[in-house]
Specification:
single chain; alpha+beta; Helix Hairpins; D-amino Acid Aminotransferase, Chain A, domain 1; OB fold (Dihydrolipoamide Acetyltransferase, E2P); seven-stranded antiparallel β-sheet; five-stranded mixed β-sheet; 22 strands; elongated; binds nicotinamide-adenine-dinucleotide; binds zinc ion; DNAligase_N; metal-binding; NAD
């Protein structure tokens, strides 16, 4: 219907209108009508929107305001004069009993007050009760029940006629195929509602599509409307649709029956439907007699939006009384007795300008999309992670593409899809670097992984990220060691590695611009305090691949001293709860590395706690059972023989010399060759006297 060149031209025109404030003119009206027809076609017929809703709404509002100011430009073929362009040729068309309209939109408290004022004027003298319910973000349907049976289901279509989808709707388990309307005196009725796909189902659907190499669906709404219009009901059944019914639009009574009490107000009519077995919004609905109550409820509900299992894009406020609704009537586009309060937009389109590659703590190289800044839901988005090469390939994203960006609640923004129809041929493939963009090392991609990695441990990008991770709140919690300070200290070579944190030359820091005495002493105190952090935080802070906070806690419980892990095998690690082969391999690899052992020893030398102070191990009767000790040098707080006795009392065996059998070497002042030999061996845990005393104390306390 719209050839590729036309699509691109119309889209660019729309963007330029959105980015300027054009003067009213008849030619602009013509352009807007074409843009909206095109958008409607992509949205309703193709289920593949090219604009963000907020953009569409702005274009639509602009057209409406121009037609209002210049009635001579208003033609009856204008999209403002009907609901939508929603009919495909594949399905039979049926006429609705009552037109199925859209809703007028409001975006803030003022809009809502204006609408309430119009309601009050329309039914002057009477008080109004407002009913508020969720605005389900799905596809609208009309259901007709005759003699208690579902006889016909249709899409909204163009509002006057819809597509007949009875067999598809019968696949939706929550819609009753029959209901006892006759007991209420009703012979025939038409119910309106929304078909939705729950968020989890939707996510599953897109995972499935990705595995089949298909493009992801943009959102649950388009997925729902596309599914309803599939030609094979068996396929529909697989998509697990849900429904909510929110309006009785028409009914006729059995001979002799009077209008039942439940059909005087919107709220009561839905309660009746609920009792008859229909899914309705009754549980979420609230009644208000003043618009301020409505406004407060709307603001509150928006914050809870993400707690629902399905998507809503706002709330709908309806005049509760059916007689009042009747008196207010409707326009060609929407009823006057209802209005939508739309939540802040979560999607926007933008242009992908470039892709940068960022190197993380573990050397993983992440593509990051740089887009023209767009405002989504109150925040400006200009940088978006593309995760990895596979995601880029799956979504077929190119530099220069127009992309649909989503930012929902606390979720980090992501690119839903590219819009390939809008390409003009200048787009370029995203090329993945073969070498680390920071240190130049050749990148590697392990077979079973989706990411490329720089395996150069000395890579600057990784070093900075490792230090940041070590200092982070959930690790060693060194306040003040954030991104800017760490990057700055790194540049100045004040810190090049994690152990350097404990060797910072503070006089040099104090001389730096922007550092006051107070900030230096705070920072220094934070670094000093981190020495006492419990072992699980240290383990997490080391940034071992695949080791998160929980795994770190499980690990910390298993040893007396961090360095006990030097002798552990993969098999031993696997025996710990929640640790699988992948994590075990990573752990064994980490602790076997000479570089890592050196770093750990440097931390221990700097006085960082290596001891498990909450140990189940230490709580056993002989906390040192099975462990071998050797003391060397001069101890300052106890005699060597006392120290040996204390260790033995806890089950330790004292060895005569340094060998591979030795677990702990406790080092006093002026230690000599034993210390050298132990260091060379690399398997011996070297303890200071203080550390040894701490070990004794924790085992005595338990
Ligand atoms: N992105 C695009 O290119 C594009 C194109 C066309 C339309 N749109 C979007 O669609 C909107 C217009 O579509 P629309 O006509 O479906 O209007 P709408 O989505 O703004 O609101 C009307 C619809 O809300 C639904 N609804 C959900 N819960 C309801 C409830 N409790 N009570 C009553 N109705 C309820 C009904 O299906 C009703 O038809 C636009 O405002 C725009 O956001 C976007
Ligand atoms: Zn690198």
């Amino acid at each position: 219907m719209f050839p590729a060149e036309a699509q691109k031209r119309i889209f660019d025109q729309a963007k330029s209108i959105l980015n300027s404030s054009p003067d009213a003119s008849e030619i602009l009206v013509t352009h807007l009508k074409e843009i909206i027809r095109f958008a409607d076609w992509k949205y309703y017929v193709e289920s593949d929107p090219v604009f963000a809703d907020e953009e569409y709404d702005r274009l639509f509002a602009l057209l409406r305001s121009m037609e209002a100011a210049h009635p001579e430009w208003l033609m009856d073929d204008s999209p403002t004069q009907r609901v939508a362009l929603g009919l495909s040729e594949r399905l039979p068309t049926v006429a609705h009993l009552v037109p199925m309209l859209s809703l007028d939109n409001t975006y803030n408290a003022d809009d809502l007050r204006d609408w309430a004022r119009r309601c009050e004027t329309a039914i002057a003298g009477e008080s109004i009760t407002y009913c508020v319910e969720p605005k389900y973000d799905g596809a609208s349907i009309s259901l007709i029940y005759e003699a208690d049976r579902l006889s016909r289901a249709a899409t909204r279509g163009d509002g006057v006629s819809g597509e007949e989808i009875t067999n598809n709707v019968k696949q939706i388990k929550s819609i009753p195929l029959s209901a006892a309307f006759a007991t209420g005196g009703v012979r025939q009725l038409e119910i309106r509602g929304e078909v939705v796909i729950h968020k989890e189902t939707f996510a599953g659907l897109n995972r499935q599509r990705a595995s089949e190499g298909l493009a992801p669906l943009a959102n649950p709404r388009n997925a729902a409307s596309g599914t309803l219009r599939m030609l094979d009901p068996a396929e529909v059944a697989k998509r697990k649709l849900s429904a909510v019914l929110y309006h009785i639009s028409d009914y006729s009574l059995l001979g002799g029956a009077g209008t039942p009490a439940s059909l005087h107000t919107h709220y009561d009519s839905l309660k009746w439907l609920q009792e008859l077995g229909f899914p309705t919004p009754v549980k979420e609905m609230r009644l208000f007699t003043d618009i301020d109550g409505v406004i407060g409820f709307c603001a509150d509900f928006e914050t809870k939006r993400d707690e629902l299992p399905y998507e809503i894009d706002g709330l709908v406020i309806k005049v509760n009384d059916f007689a009042q609704q009747e008196r207010m009537g409707m326009t060609a586009h929407h009823p006057r007795w209802a209005v939508a309060y739309k939540f802040k937009a979560r999607q926007a389109t933008s242009k992908l300008r470039a892709v940068e590659f960022q190197v993380g703590r573990t050397g993983s190289v992440t593509p990051v999309a740089k887009i023209d800044p767009v405002n989504i839901g109150g925040a400006t988005v200009s940088s978006i992670s593309l995760f990895n090469e596979d995601v880029v390939r799956e979504k077929d994203i190119h530099i220069g593409d127009t992309v649909l960006v989503e930012r929902a609640g606390d979720v980090i923004p992501y690119i839903v899809k590219a819009l390939p129809d809008l390409r003009d041929g200048t787009e370029q493939e995203i090329l993945f670097p073969t070498h680390c963009p920071v240190c130049g090392e050749m990148l590697e991609r392990p077979e079973d992984e989706a990411v490329w990695r720089c395996i150069n441990f000395a890579c600057k990008a990784q070093a900075v990220e490792r230090i940041l991770h070590y200092c982070s709140k959930d690790a060693m919690d060194i306040r003040g060691m954030g991104e800017s300070n760490v990057a700055r200290f790194f540049e100045l070579e004040l810190i090049r590695s994690v152990p350097d944190l404990y060797r910072i030359d503070w006089t040099q820091v104090a001389a730096l611009e922007g550092f006051k005495d107070k900030s230096v002493s705070n920072l220094r105190a934070a670094v000093d305090a981190s020495r006492e952090q419990p072992l699980n935080r240290l383990i997490f802070g080391l940034g071992i691949r695949h080791v998160g906070e929980t795994t770190a806690k499980n690990l910390a419980r298993k040893v007396t001293d961090l360095r006990d892990f030097y002798s552990w095998t993969e098999e031993q690690f696997i025996r710990i709860e929640d640790i699988g082969p992948k994590v075990a391999a990573s752990l064994a690899h980490f602790f076997a590395s000479h570089d890592n052992r050196e770093s750990i020893q440097a931390l221990a030398d700097a006085g960082v706690n290596m001891i498990n102070t909450q140990s189940a191990v230490l709580q056993q009767e002989g906390a040192f059972s099975g462990k071998t000790f050797l003391f060397t040098g001069t101890l300052s707080q106890m005699k060597r023989s006392d120290a040996e006795a204390k260790a033995e009392a806890l089950g330790a065996q004292i060895l005569g010399g340094v060998s591979s059998k030795l677990n702990y070497l406790v080092v006093g002042a002026d230690a000599g060759s034993k210390l050298e030999k132990a260091k060379k061996l690399g398997t011996v845990i070297i303890l200071t006297e203080e550390e040894f005393i701490r070990m004794l104390e924790t085992s005595a306390n338990s």
